[in-house]
Design a protein that fits this description.
Order of helices and strands of chain A: HHHEEHHHHHHHH
Number of strands of chain B: 20
Distance between the termini of chain B: 60 Å
Number of helices of chain B: 21
Number of domains of chain B: 2
CATH superfamily of the largest domain in chain B: P-loop containing nucleotide triphosphate hydrolases
Number of strands of chain A: 2
CATH class of the largest domain in chain B: Alpha Beta
Distance between the termini of chain A: 44 Å
Radius of gyration of chain A: 27 Å
CATH architecture of the largest domain in chain B: 3-Layer(aba) Sandwich
Largest interface: A-B, 66 and 88 residues
Helix content of chain A: 55-70%
Strand content of chain B: 15-25%
Structural class of chain B: alpha/beta
Oligomer: heterodimer
Number of domains of chain A: 3
Helix content of chain B: 25-40%
Largest sheet of chain B: 6 strands, mixed
Structural class of chain A: mainly alpha
Largest sheet of chain A: 2 strands, antiparallel
CATH topology of the largest domain in chain B: Rossmann fold
Strand order of the largest sheet of chain A: 1-2
């Protein structure tokens, strides 16, 4: 039997986890809760993230930038709150009192943004892009392939651009006006086209598109025409005050659309390398995502839902905290403690010289 | 396995056919080497084997191609993909995805191979090419040789019976090239895979191939077992060892140094004592204490290098040893953290790139990055305009005024002044790029891998161009993996490793003793100081001459 690789969990489970974590971050606008989600996201990233998917900018620096920006913005622009720290002269927009409450509110907003970032960085670190693209339905297989190829092709183009800039600088080119970009743009364009042709050749030589079932094409067209006709007819019928007929036709169109997608999915039969198999651990990850959602969104008795919204105005107070909600959010960190199989060996550090810096 | 009859093909809008009346038969399990100058039609012939030509390129075709029992012209490349695996020259532009395993599985997914079998086939391909260690790495982290092996693995995933490989090593350093070729040999010997290979550096593959086909101008001129084919080929297209063997009539013709050793006389003349060091003058280029790092990875550590007027220095070392980085530091594209660089005794550290490059010609690895103008002449004029110079005005250090026309003539491009640069052959494009950086008549030349992908003739032309400038007193710093080029051109060799100079000396002293960098002739006559077939021939002949005189 073919199993998914045991050291990775299913991309679908992670996607739900990330969506839940992001939704909860937006729902729980309280710095204490934000902090819990932030810690959970970092714990999970540390346990499941891959060295090769690491974000180029250090996480703490991103956080510092966000906190600082949010603090300055809110502190300077919002002159509300009772604890005035100092007064700015009457400058337009930012003049007037600077209050402790505005600064605290700015900080708590910054923390919220930072948490949101941590959640999406977790997705970036844990799930390879190609697995994400594979979540698209089969009918969009070609589109998925195009996205994946673009992800390979674009960084290559960036490296190419750097090489060309160097080559032209050596000829004494200085970039003053837009005309000076011609020596850079033309080789980039021509070289890019050459690379695209080469890639197309290489894909054809490897049988890309060989399984395309040409006989299916006419049936797909027929289906498409029928779908459009019934949708249009349904819309007309609605206009002519025939709700029953109209609704029926629109329903038919919806059915036809499903059939069309199914047909498209079968048009070019493909298979998937290492198809992931849903495992118990995936169910657990899913549970850690869904449970806090249920706790926060359903009205359970005895839970202080008001603590989800924290406002320091008009006078600074300590944010409220409900242990049940706190515990629910802490659930998000549980995937970090799931037993995982053998971890992939990290690549040696020497492999991380930026490309093009090799001789 | 492959049967081609009277194949004639012309690209669209080209009058001359690229292939003319080609008839060829290749049996299952053969390892065939396809040689010939660039533009001979080798790549076009390869593309005919799986139908990329003419299905992809258009044009007119006549004749018959049968591969694995299929009529290629009727079936097309997608059907043929099951029988013919294709590996292209550039490892970077043939990968569809950016990770090793998905890249190998790509063809299998699109062929709807069931997951169980797909897993097995990917695993096989990984093992055959010795890639299992790298399976999860992104392709951008791999070296050129590793990427090329991934490309071969990806081509093998569909289990083709024929592997077609178009100059797989032209972008690689000797060690990576050797790994790739060894992988091909293994596939041929262990699996009985039929292999058709195009390769310029014949000396690397001669010993492995069953047959050598030599092409010129779209025709097959020679098609024989390697030994016989070499004797029938134009001599300047053969490796130095073969040239020497042919000149001295060694039978059977040695293809490897090992085979050649039994012809070496015991009493070949030993090298004369090295001449006294040349008198010291102000060097053209002097760089002292250069340090450079990318992030926390040191690339150059306290590096000193000098180039004198009229001197050619070869900079050698493995990929990633810091050679290209050094050249970029010298022209100011990268700023060294420490150290000084002076040209003609003037300190140029931290000067703008444009200012340094009036006195220095720097030719990057890929000449196509330079070319954008509509004509060859314009390509040269643009550089002069960039520097704010009128034709004939001088900047670089030579006193006599220099005309673009004269530069073109020197480069052998006078007839092509109005041609569109990108339509030219690789060797010609290389010379246009060289013209574009040398039109300011600089005294110092920095060339980065100038012979990548060039055939023997183009290399000879490059050497001849350099000789003329050398006679005028120019200096050359050359980064290359091509030991035979170094043997011909360089007086001094500098070997660097991990950003440090580990050897620096006369070519004749340093190269023969190095197991990695010794040219073929030095391996044959280690004590002689000869580097090229011509030197060996002259040396051996004068010895024979002396002996004859003595006997008389």
């Amino acid at each position: 039997m073919v199993t998914g690789r045991d050291d990775y969990l299913d991309a679908r489970a992670w996607t739900v986890w990330v969506l839940a974590a992001a939704g909860l971050t937006m729902a729980a606008r309280n710095p204490l809760y934000s902090l819990i989600i932030l810690l959970a996201a970092r714990l999970v990233t540390a346990e499941w993230g891959r060295a090769t998917n690491r974000f180029p900018i250090p996480f703490w620096r991103l956080g510092l930038i966000m906190l600082l920006f949010s603090l300055l913005f809110n502190g300077l622009f919002v002159p509300i709150g009772s604890t005035v720290l100092f007064r700015l002269p009457d400058w337009p927009l930012i003049g007037g009192p600077v209050t402790l409450e505005a600064i605290v509110f700015g900080l708590s907003n910054g923390l919220l943004l930072w948490t949101l970032l941590a959640v999406f960085l977790a997705l970036n670190a844990i799930v390879p892009v190609y697995q994400l693209v594979r979540l698209t339905p089969r009918a969009f297989h070609d589109l998925g392939v195009v996205v994946l190829i673009a992800l390979t092709y674009l960084p290559e183009t960036a490296r190419h651009l750097r090489r060309i800039r160097e080559a032209q600088a050596v000829r004494g080119l200085q970039l003053r006006g837009w005309r000076d970009w011609r020596p850079i743009f033309l080789p980039l364009l021509i070289g890019g086209l050459e690379r695209a042709m080469q890639l197309a050749e290489s894909m054809v030589a490897r049988g890309y598109g060989a399984t395309l079932d040409v006989a299916q094409r006419d049936r797909v067209r027929l289906l498409l025409a029928a779908t459009l006709l019934s949708a249009f007819g349904g819309w007309l019928a609605m206009l002519w005050q025939q709700p029953l007929l109209g609704g029926g036709l629109v329903g038919l169109a919806a059915l036809l659309l499903v059939g069309l997608l199914w047909r498209l999915g079968r048009r070019a039969p493909t298979s998937r390398y290492r198809p992931t198999v849903w495992q118990r651990a995936d169910t657990l990850v899913l549970a850690t995502a869904v449970l806090p959602l249920l706790l926060v969104w359903l009205p359970w008795p005895g839970v202080d839902y008001a603590s989800l919204y924290y406002s320091p105005y008009p006078t600074l107070t300590w944010p409220a905290f409900d242990p049940v909600l706190g515990l629910a959010l802490a659930f998000l960190s549980l995937p970090a403690f799931l037993r995982r199989g053998q971890r992939a060996a990290p690549a040696p550090a020497s492999a991380y010289l930026p490309d093009g810096y090799h001789d | 396995m492959i049967d081609i009859r009277h194949l004639t093909y012309s690209y669209p809008n080209k009058k001359r056919p690229s292939l003319e009346d080609v008839t060829l038969h290749i049996d299952a399990g053969e390892f065939v080497l396809l040689a010939g100058p660039s533009g001979a039609g080798k790549s076009t012939l390869l593309r005919c084997l799986n139908g990329l030509t003419p299905h992809f390129s258009g044009g007119t075709i006549a004749g018959q191609i049968t591969v694995a029992g299929h009529d290629v012209l009727a079936a097309g490349p997608q059907t043929l993909s099951r029988y013919v695996g294709f590996v292209f020259q550039d490892p970077e532009s043939q990968a569809a995805l950016d990770q090793v395993e998905p890249e190998i599985a790509f063809a299998l997914e699109n062929a709807a191979v069931p997951p169980e079998e797909m897993r097995l086939r990917v695993e096989e391909a990984l093992n055959l090419l010795d890639l299992s260690r790298l399976r999860e790495r992104p392709l951008t982290d791999l070296s050129g040789g590793e990427r090329q092996r991934v490309a071969i693995a990806a081509a093998l995933a569909l289990r083709p019976r024929i592997l077609v490989v178009d100059e797989p090593t032209s972008q690689l350093d000797p060690q990576s090239a050797e790994d790739v070729l060894q992988a091909l040999v293994r596939l041929n010997e262990d699996l009985g895979l039929t292999i058709v290979l195009v390769e310029h550096r014949l000396e690397r593959v001669l010993r492995y191939v069953d047959r050598l086909i030599y092409m010129e101008q779209g025709r097959i001129l020679v098609d024989n077992p390697a030994g016989m084919a070499l004797a029938a080929m134009p001599q300047q297209q053969t490796p130095p060892l073969v040239r020497l063997g042919l000149a001295l009539d060694w039978q059977p013709l040695p293809l490897t140094v090992k085979e050649g050793l039994r012809f070496v006389p015991d009493d070949y003349p030993a090298a004369p004592k090295a001449a006294a060091a040349a008198k010291q003058s102000t060097p053209l280029l002097a760089a002292r204490g250069l340090r450079f790092s990318y992030g926390r990875t040191p690339v150059l550590r306290d590096l000193n290098i000098e180039v004198a007027a009229g001197e050619a220095v070869a900079l050698m070392g493995r990929n990633g040893s810091g050679k290209s980085t050094l050249l970029k530091c010298l022209v100011g594209l990268l700023q060294p953290a420490e150290g000084s660089i002076s040209l003609n005794g003037q300190d140029v550290s931290r000067r703008p790139v444009a200012e340094i490059c009036r006195q220095v010609a720097y030719l990057p690895q890929n000449p196509d990055d330079l070319l954008f103008a509509d004509t060859v002449a314009e390509e040269l004029a643009v550089t002069l305009r960039n520097h704010g110079l009128a034709p004939g005005q001088m900047a670089g250090g030579f006193d006599e005024p220099y005309q673009p026309q004269a530069v073109l003539a020197q480069l052998g491009l006078a007839d092509l002044a109005d041609a569109y640069p990108r339509d030219l052959s690789v060797g010609q494009r290389q010379r246009v790029a060289l013209g574009a950086v040398t039109v300011t008549a600089p005294r110092l030349w920095l060339l980065d891998e100038p012979t990548r992908g060039l055939d023997y003739q183009a290399k000879q032309e490059l050497i001849a161009i350099w000789r003329r400038w050398q006679a005028l007193g120019a200096g050359l710093l050359l980064v290359t993996h091509d030991v035979e080029l170094v043997a011909h051109i360089a007086e001094r060799v500098v070997i660097i490793s991990e950003g440090e100079i580990i050897a620096n000396g006369r070519t004749a002293d340093l190269l023969p003793t190095s197991p990695l960098f010794a040219p073929q002739i030095s391996r044959l006559f280690p004590q002689s100081g000869w580097l090229t077939a011509e030197e060996a021939l002259a040396g051996l002949r004068s010895q024979i001459h002396l002996q004859e005189n003595y006997c008389a």
